[in-house]
Automatic annotation (TrEMBL):
<dbReference type="InterPro" id="IPR001680">
    <property type="entry name" value="WD40_rpt"/>
</dbReference>
<protein>
    <submittedName>
        <fullName>WD repeat-containing protein 49</fullName>
    </submittedName>
</protein>
<dbReference type="InterPro" id="IPR051242">
    <property type="entry name" value="WD-EF-hand_domain"/>
</dbReference>
<dbReference type="Pfam" id="PF00400">
    <property type="entry name" value="WD40"/>
</dbReference>
<dbReference type="InterPro" id="IPR036322">
    <property type="entry name" value="WD40_repeat_dom_sf"/>
</dbReference>
<dbReference type="InterPro" id="IPR015943">
    <property type="entry name" value="WD40/YVTN_repeat-like_dom_sf"/>
</dbReference>
<keyword id="KW-0677">Repeat</keyword>
């Protein structure tokens, strides 16, 4: 059975996989390169990460290219990792190959990784021109929901996406099920759950509203601060008019 390692993502796009038993960083993944971190058990993580960058085993770019990955380039490409999701339902991924980790963030990109082979298998532009995004997946790893800073929500079918390893990176997006705008401001949180055989997407936004929507249907319910404010001001108006009378 697939065991999920500890993992963190950074502003510059690096994803660090940790061995939860030894508490040592094991591998660094990045859209432009990968590093194998070799260390002794007592090596401090900070020193380990610094040493790892000088010992690449499977780099996807030469040293000159890596040198060009400056702060300015990262700021332009905006590789920042906002959300990481392990596809735990893909239990046979170690034997068959394919993606078992999804990341998203800067520039609206979603990336699928094979942590067994330490390889970026696919990346696609989920949301264009809106900056960073967040995402969530259901426990069966059939659906992927992504949300952006403009309040747009997209639901993708990833059931058959990146199930096998490949030498070339896939840039084709998975099947898009729905694209709609349930919020007026940026989506700050996304979750998926099952209720009565239906998969629901729960989204919270900076517009002080929460939307519960069916994966394949219309929004089930939208509620939040907007309704409270309307009720509050309605009560004030009612009280004011009664006092005048």
């Amino acid at each position: 059975m697939f065991s999920v390692p500890a993992h963190i993502g950074s502003y510059d796009g690096e994803i660090v996989l940790w061995n939860s038993s030894t508490e040592n960083a094991h591998y660094v993944l990045h859209p432009d390169y990968q590093w194998l971190l070799k260390s002794k058990p007592d090596t401090e993580p900070q020193k380990l990460l610094g040493a790892g960058r000088s010992h690449s085993t499977h780099p996807t770019a030469d040293q000159a290219t890596l040198g060009a990955c400056s702060f300015e380039r990262d700021a332009e490409c905006n590789h920042a990792v906002m959300t990481l999701c392990f596809l735990e339902a893909r239990e046979n991924i170690a034997a068959t190959g394919g993606a078992n980790l999804v990341s998203c963030g800067g520039s609206g990109y979603v990336r699928f990784w094979d942590t067994v082979k330490k390889q970026l298998l696919a990346e696609f532009l989920a949301h264009s021109g809106v900056g960073s995004i967040i995402m969530s997946t259901d426990k069966t790893n059939r659906y992927l929901a992504t949300g952006d800073l403009d309040g747009w929500l997209k639901i993708w079918n990833i059931e058959e996406y990146c199930l096998n390893s490949s030498k070339s990176k896939l840039t084709r997006a998975p099947a898009l099920i729905r694209s709609f705008r349930p919020h007026e401001d940026w989506i700050s949180s996304l979750e998926m759950c099952e209720l009565g055989g239906r998969w629901l997407v729960l989204s919270a936004s900076a517009d002080c509203s929460i939307c519960v929507t069916d994966v394949c249907g219309a929004p089930v319910r939208v509620f939040g601060q907007v309704e409270i404010l309307l009720l509050y001001y309605s009560n004030i108006y009612l009280t004011f008019t009664m006092n005048l009378a």
